[in-house]
């Protein structure tokens, strides 16, 4: 789930733009230019590429696509209309990002995140921490149907616990996202789980049941990987755990009562409250909890001397909106206990907007539909059809930069092809989820990749190889298709 519990009707009804003036080679020009520029940009800037230079490269790619469009009778107004639609589709996601930044700030100064880390250090062994992380996130996302909410709540805490244990942030993030996208993929509360069968023409629970054929093996592989990885972890930082526990308890009033706030947020999401409302409620409750449980921290953040109304107001607003840091006696924890607030999310929002411009122009000139059709024509067997669908979904995640469009466009393009081959719609809906839903988080400029990277504070390049579930899922779906295992056919009596 990306940002909503209800599928926007505009996505289901959105027309796929076909430009008969455009040929496949012209459609590929912006992609080739973008890939070359991004590769060079990453070579020059390295890990700092997402601080602004990649955003401009995406706009450069959009400019090249626009030139191709002008040469093929696409007007500026048509392009801007698609860009506008793309940006409009991310408006709630952008607001959610701001709320996540606000929530992270108040949950820090209220002691919620430090308390989670405190109990996590006491209860979780470094050897089984990664395994516990993927299982915890699987259960939370299954209950909420939201990978985004899972990352913003337990995901942030698990990253902090992992850091104090000396576990690489990329590994922890990979475990978090593997679990988060498991629930996102099969929970009936997830919007992508509802969107995929809507596009393919299958029924929701038929779709979920059929997905288990590929989803269970993918999750099993991911869990086994983290079990083995945990056994070989050096376990550095474990000897200092008591110093860290003491540093946390000295700087914060650690209390299990603080867990009421995240439990309220998770309960609201389970009850299908809009994630935006749930996260905003969590941010406000975090501020109230900070005044009650951590008055000294609030005064420190506000730069005051005594807690009064003005100091409390300033401390909470600072945590909600700007960068704050809570100092402890442990240097590692002092670096960990910092938050950028809403302001810290602006870089990620900038990336999403730039990606939506590129995706919008590519869609407006008809390049996305041309390339999808070309992929469809390349394969003639049933296995080839599955392969083409997987490639199209991954391609859409990379170019349209949006998880929804990676399901909607291939879903519409391939529906008739599956019917013509006598394949039941659940084959298409499952493949859309196996490749469109889960790979979105692996692309830095995709809305899902940008969001999770920003929330967890871990670059996509760091967690890519450890997000086992996300990149194994499309491989498993192709293996199952190649073996012809349980490829469901249309019943002539009900077709």
- Low-confidence region ranges: 1-9
- Side by side, the strands of the main sheet go 1-2
Radius of gyration over C-alpha positions, nearest whole angstrom: 23 Å
Mean pLDDT: 85
Tell me the quaternary state: single chain
- Helix % is over 70%
| Share in β-strands | under 5%
Please report the number of helical segments. Answer: 25
Largest sheet: 2 strands, antiparallel
Architecture overview:
The protein has a domain at 92-344. Strands 1-2 form a two-stranded antiparallel ribbon. It is mainly α. The protein is built from 25 helices and 2 strands. It has helices spanning 9-13, 24-45, 53-71, 76-89, 91-109, 112-123, 129-144, 147-164, 169-186, 191-200, 204-231, 241-251, 260-270, 275-293, 295-302, 309-321, 331-336, 346-364, 367-378, 382-399, 403-420, 425-439, 447-456, 460-463, 468-483; strands at 324-325, 338-339.
